[in-house]
Design goal:
Length: 96
């Protein structure tokens, strides 16, 4: 990556949905335009309940009512989590 070559950051953290799928859910990680630019891909796998609690809290911090936040997480965020989880086996490292 150009930033690293220019003395920039050595570690880049990206969102799994966008990095692993290139923003296109139908495109698998093996076809991601970003993957060839990465030395390693790590998959962070927090326990499901913890992930949901953190997501709900984040949405509440950003202005959603708690019931609306939980509804959003259950409908949208969890659907994305299931999609990203399918690429877990292609990660270089899984952090539980």
């Amino acid at each position: 990556m150009a930033a690293a070559e220019a003395g920039g950051p050595a570690v880049v953290v990206g969102d799994g949905f966008r990095v692993r799928h290139g923003g296109e859910p139908a495109v698998g990680a093996q076809h991601s335009p970003v993957r060839p630019l990465l030395d390693e891909v790590w998959f962070l796998a927090p326990e499901g309940g913890l992930r949901v609690r953190r997501l709900v809290a984040r949405h509440v911090r950003h202005g959603r009512a708690p019931d609306r936040a939980r509804e959003w997480v259950e409908r949208s965020d969890e659907a994305n989590a299931r999609l990203v989880a399918r690429g877990r086996r292609r990660a270089d490292l899984v952090v539980e």
